[in-house]
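> example.struct
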């Protein structure tokens, strides 16, 4: 069973960083950290359900909310350095609390760029597993950074995502290996417009693959 615990996480200006951290009472099999999108919060299904399922499997889970979201501001280039700093500090603080046999990270859209940055910047994450959901392909904040990372990686992409870029994808494939799932008809939220059953199936598939990716040997 996991209990909710408050960690001393701070944003780039020293104010408390909103988060949900659940720590197992006994042995812990791993730590999962989720990074939301600019308009996709910590409780969006693609982030919420991996946390729930891995908690049940004996993992600690940390779900973050960026300070700009709490302040109800829109993301802008001038906020990116502070955002990266607060996420890096959050990871550092959490890993200093406990040693984990495995660390997994899941980033949605903007969060995928955060995960790529952390994989490149943090030596403590050299053996982490990284899942990138609907990443901002073709953008300088993602492609060149992701291509330099070496962590085991999984990508989930929708064929109708406005950020899906076939040429950018092929260019990334040429730089490093990664696992990938393409959901036909899915948009940036991994919804299939006008088709509830297909949308639910898309979320179910991606969530299941994230969990399998995190626990597999």
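> example.seq
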């Amino acid at each position: 069973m996991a209990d909710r615990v408050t960690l001393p996480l701070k944003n780039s200006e020293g104010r408390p960083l909103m988060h949900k951290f659940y720590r197992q009472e006994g042995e812990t099999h791993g730590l999962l950290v989720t990074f939301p999108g600019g308009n996709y919060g910590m409780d969006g299904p693609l982030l919420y359900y991996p946390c729930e399922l891995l908690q049940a499997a004996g993992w600690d889970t940390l779900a973050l909310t960026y300070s700009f979201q709490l302040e109800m501001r829109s993301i802008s280039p001038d906020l990116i350095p502070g955002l990266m700093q607060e996420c890096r500090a959050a990871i550092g603080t959490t890993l200093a609390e406990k040693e984990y046999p495995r660390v997994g990270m899941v980033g949605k859209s903007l969060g995928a760029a955060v995960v790529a940055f952390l994989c490149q910047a943090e030596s403590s994450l050299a053996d982490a597993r990284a899942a990138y959901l609907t990443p901002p392909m073709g953008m300088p904040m993602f492609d060149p950074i992701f291509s330099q990372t070496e962590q085991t990686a999984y990508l989930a992409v929708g064929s109708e995502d406005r950020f899906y870029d076939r040429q950018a994808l092929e260019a990334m494939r040429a730089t490093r290996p990664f696992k990938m799932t393409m959901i036909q008809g899915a948009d940036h939220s991994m919804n299939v417009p006008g088709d509830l059953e297909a949308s639910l199936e898309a979320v179910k598939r991606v969530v299941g693959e994230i969990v399998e990716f995190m626990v597999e040997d």
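> remarks
The beta strands are 2-5, 19-24, 30-35, 59-64, 103-108, 129-133, 152-158, 179-183.
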